[in-house]
Each structure stands twice: as C-alpha cells, then as structure tokens.
Amino acid sequence: MTEKNKAVRRGEKLLQKQERRHEAKIDKRPPCCMRCEYYQPKFKYRTCLFVRCPMDKSLKTIRARPLSSDKFAV
C-alpha cells in the first residue's frame, strides 16, 4: 500500500467512526424527540425546554434520575 492509500483508508475510518458516534447519540433520544428542536440532553433535571413534551402531550420530560453533573453550573 502506498502512503496515499493509507491516508485515504485512515480518513475513511475516521468518517465511519464519526458516523457511528452520531448514530449512537440519536439512538439515546426518546422516540418522539428524534427531530425535536427543544430536546436538551445536557439539562440536569429535564430532557426538554418544556415540562410537557410539545410533540406528545402525555410525555413528561422530567428525568427519573438527574444527571451526575450539571453542564451549565459554574
């Protein structure tokens, strides 16, 4: 293999790794939040800007267990 081929292979592997990470992040969302602009994974006590999901009114957005760390705390 030439150096150019090695570089291309490495680039392809990096892209595949990034795609897998992106897919894993999407899979962690609740089904109704897949394309929701209000979904907030970094909020400590909620998963949405709203208390009740605007897409599915029967769904509560309060977490059963808060996140271990607050991303916005100073």
How many strand units? 0
- Please report which band the strand proportion falls in: under 5%, 5-15%, 15-25%, 25-35%, 35-45% or over 45%: under 5%
Give the CA-based shape. elongated
Distance between the termini: 50 Å
Largest sheet: none
- The whole-angstrom Rg is 18 Å
Count of discrete alpha- or pi-helical segments spanning 4 or more residues: 1
Average pLDDT level: 78
Overall description:
The chain is mainly alpha-helical and 74 residues long. 34% of the residues lie in helices and 0% in strands. It contains one helix and no strands. The longest helix is centred in the N-terminal third of the chain and has 25 residues, at 3-27.
Please summarize what this structure is:
The chain is mainly alpha-helical.
Throw out a few tags for this protein:
single chain, 74 residues, mainly alpha, 34% helix, 0% strand
Topology of this protein?
Elements: H1 3-27
